[in-house]
Amino acid sequence: MHEEKVRKIEEGIKQKRRVEGFSLDLSHIGPGEKRRLAEFMYNHGPGNGKMLFLPIDQGLEHGPSDFFPNPPSGDFEFQLCLAEEGGYSGVVCHIGLAERHMKEFAGRVPLILKVNGKTNIPSDEEAFSPLDATVEDAVRLGADAVGYTLYVGSPRQDDDFLQFTEIRQEAKRFGMPVIMWAYPRGKFAEIHGGRDSFAMVDYAARVANELGATLVKLNLPKPPQGGEYKPDGPFKKYNQYKDLSSEEALVSVVQSAGRCGVLVSGGSKMGDEDLLKKAKDCLDAGVDGLIFGRNMWQRKYEDALKITEEIKKMMKRA
Predict the structure, then answer these.
(1) Are 36 and 138 in contact (CB under 8 A)?
(2) Core vs surface per residue 146-179: b (16+ CB within 10 A) or e
(3) Does the predicted model carry a pTM greater than 0.90?
(4) Residue 278's closest CA among 261, 295, 262?
(5) What sign has the CA pseudo-torsion 61, 257, 277, 82?
(6) pLDDT averaged over every residue in the chain
(7) Burial class (CB in 10 A: 0-12, 13-18, 19+), 108
(8) How many CB atoms lie within 10 A of CB 36?
(9) In a 10 Å sphere around its CB, with 0-12 CB exposed, 13-18 middle and 19+ buried, how is residue 137 labelled?
(10) Distance between CA 300 and CA 127 in Å, rounded?
């Protein structure tokens, strides 16, 4: 009865291509979500279904030092101008910046409102980000999605799961997409291969899929710290894949995300050539978009526009 469907799954895995994909036609996406996602995927950004976001939530998460390399970037107007002129799919910020700056750009720059966050002052051993906004705030501010950071593997993940469930249910009522920042954190993440190891990022992708996120933001996976996973740890089976490159591992991570759209983070600023290679590797692995912040706004405005255009051209060919 289902032989053909199973055969397609087997062939996709064998060919190392994405079996389940993200699109606006998926049955679980309601009309409100579809309309809002279309703003990101077709009405803004590259315009072919791929997404390119400009996040500025780092001001809360990392503090003012992230703006030191390019002081004008400390003013949110810098990112908003870059997003509009560069043709991004949208910006990401917390409620204070959204309330103070988005009115002028409403209808021209789509907004993802980040609804939880924390500072980097306390230890990450028991990482947890409390709510600082609501889905209703996002609707009031004209946002097209909400962003939620979930720390996979943290000792406080039970609180995180419950808090995320409240946001997901509220978002569903409003027809609002939910983007999960699925970040392995906490003392257990560090002793089981490291927060950005393939096993941890792969698990994070599956968590987003299982918990019902619309899109998931992930870091590029890396080999485990020390070269291998603990033989008595939860990821011992990943040792057979410990020599995979980041690009090869990302293919598997995308598979684990299922029908959840995948966005890859840019991370710390890197040179033009390295950033373009990262973008290409991610697109080749089948991701649905890129979310590059510091790699864009820590550059001078003209330089940021230039590399934005290069990345968008790449995305349009993907």
Answers:
(1) no
(2) bbbbbbbbbebbeebeebbeebbebbbebebbbb
(3) yes
(4) 295
(5) negative
(6) 96
(7) exposed
(8) 21
(9) middle
(10) 33
pLDDT digits (tens, 9 = 90+) for 170-217: 999 999 999 999 999 999 999 999 999 999 999 999 999 999 999 999
Query: Is 166's pLDDT higher than 90?
Result: yes
| Candidate list 88, 183, 203, 229, residue with the active-site label | 183
114, two tokens: 């980040």
Is 269 one of the catalytic residues? no
Active-site residue 114, yes or no? no
Helix (H, G, I), strand (E, B) or coil at 151: strand
As a whole number of angstroms, the distance between CA 121 and CA 63 comes to: 9
Q: Would you state the structure tokens that stand for residue 159, as one six-digit string?
A: 């609180």
Q: What is the pLDDT of residues 12-37, one digit of tens each?
A: 777 777 777 899 999 999 999 999 99
pLDDT confidence of residue 4: 82
Q: Which residues contact 235 (CB under 8 A, 6 or more apart)?
A: 192, 193, 197, 199, 200, 224, 229
Asked if 315 and 48 touch (Cβ cutoff 8 Å), the reply is yes
d(CA 232, CA 29): 40
How far is it, in rounded angstroms, from Cα 183 to Cα 205?
Answer: 9
> What's the length of the chain?
318
CATH class held by domain 43-317: alpha beta
Token pair in block for residue 91: 């910006």
DSSP-H helix ranges across 198-293:
198-211, 246-256, 272-284
CB 290 within 8 A of CB 52: yes
Catalytic residue chosen out of the listed positions 50, 88, 148, 217: 217
Predicted local distance difference test score (pLDDT) of residue 40: 98
Angle at CA of residue 27, ends 24 and 31, nearest 5°: 60
d(CA 93, CA 295): 16
